[in-house]
Amino acid sequence: MDSALRQIAERIREAAADRGTLRIRGAGTKDFYGEPPRGEALSAAGLCGIVSYEPSELVVTVRAGTQLVELEGLLAEQGQCLPFEPPRFGDGGGTVGGMVAAGLSGPARASVGAVRDYVLGARLLNGRSELLTFGGQVMKNVAGYDVSRVLCGSLGVLGLVTEVSLKVLPVPPAEATLVFDCHQADALRLLNGWGGQPLPLNASRWTHEQGQGRLWLRLRGATAAVAAACSHLGGERQDDAQAAADWEAARDLRLPWFAARGERELWRLSVPQTAPVLPLEEPPLIEWHGAQRWYLVPPGEGERLREAARSAGGHATLFMAADGDATVTRRFDALSAPLRRIHEALMREFDPHAVFDRARLLPPS
Predict the structure, then answer these.
(1) Domain identity same for 193 and 117
(2) How far apart are CA 60 and CA 129, in angstroms?
(3) Which residues of the chain, if any, have pLDDT below 50?
(4) Residue 129 vs residues 43, 124, 126, 312: alpha-carbon distances, Å
(5) Distance of CA 78 to CAs 16, 51, 81, 108, 222, Å?
(6) Domain that holds residue 179
(7) Pairing status of strand 22-25 against strand 40-43
(8) How do strand 80-81 and strand 59-63 relate by DSSP bridges?
């Protein structure tokens, strides 16, 4: 155990002895996500660097404090990438540990999978200050519970991720973005129909701005497959450089639609891809072929969105509160009693002294 890891382990032991609360923090780019953080910040910034990288094996092992931009730069040199496109909020792009803890994925998530689908293994400092190892560096190495994937989206309530092994993929040889003018219902119908065809669909988004609904569709894959899909689908093909910049902006929530948030809350609704237009008057931004729908609403409107999501078989998350809003609104949907018991049992097992900020993910009922 190196000096940076020893210092963190010692701070966890002290907090356990003093009954203190620690909140794990990487670059701080996702401080807005989840319930408001509590307790003393425990920085993972000192745990940085690439442990190993085997381009031929499509596996990289990296320490949790490493910035995403550094990891993605290394992968790009070998023509490889993180296909799930984790959001890189902030200039530094966030950290690898924060990527795993938040469990957020970008525009391609519906086609290529989520963060958890690419985590092969992880090392964790739990609430007893024990360094635990889960999984490894290959896909078929898990017997029993796949704890390394449980860490994805846990927001640090189970412990501090110190190291993670990730599956990476080659950058697809061809890419094209097509645009279609259509209403929301037509966009959902088109996406559902295309999803049943052998097309190299990678990402999509629909917005209604300046009186016009527009659907962006990104194709990725073999050169011949992308060319054939463009010919089959029609639409207006976009300039590759401009389209790439727009998808990067969508990934990091920097599109004009998000920039117009002002004093409104940003809500993320997760519903089945086949869900129809929701009975909400606000025009959404739709991603993931219909499965992720963003809404901007004034504070206090959350229950209306949650009811709409539940009626469609999904759930709603207050992703970003309004600036300066002191309204107490639960960020995540309340869990059913059985699920809450499972969450609480996991937290007790990994962190029996409640060292880590549990309320970040699961506030008291």
Answers:
(1) no
(2) 25
(3) none
(4) 15, 9, 5, 43
(5) 43, 17, 9, 21, 18
(6) 174-320
(7) parallel
(8) unpaired
In whole angstroms, give the CA distance from residue 295 to residue 312: 15
The amino acid at 222:
A
Contact between 286 and 187 under an 8 Å Cβ cutoff? The reply is: yes
For the question of whether the overall pTM of this predicted structure is more than 0.85, the answer is yes
Rg (CA), the chain: 21
Quick: pLDDT tens for 104-126: 999 999 999 999 999 999 999 99
Residue 95 DSSP label:
B
Same domain assignment for residues 120 and 211:
no
Tokens of 45: 């910034």
Structure tokens at 31: 């401080």
Specify whether 218 is located in the same domain as 84.
no
Q: Can you give the CATH number for the domain in which 352 is found?
A: 3.30.465.10
**pLDDT, tens only, 266-291:** 999 999 999 999 999 999 999 999 99
Distance in angstroms between the alpha carbons of the first and the last residue of the chain: 38
CA distances from 16 to 101, 131, 296 (A): 21, 15, 40
| Strand pairing category for 174-181 and 169-170 | unpaired
* Residue 137 falls inside a structural domain: yes
* Cα–Cα distance, 241 to 24 (Å, whole number): 37
Write the CB contacts of 203 (distance below 8 Å, at least 6 apart in sequence).
Answer: 106, 107, 108, 110, 111, 217, 218, 247, 250, 287
Helix (H) or strand (E) holding 15, with range, is helix 3-18
Same domain, 115 and 85: yes
Instruction: Kindly report, residue by residue over 312-322, the tens digit of the pLDDT.
Output: 999 999 999 98
CB half-sphere exposure, 9, CA atoms < 13 A? 14
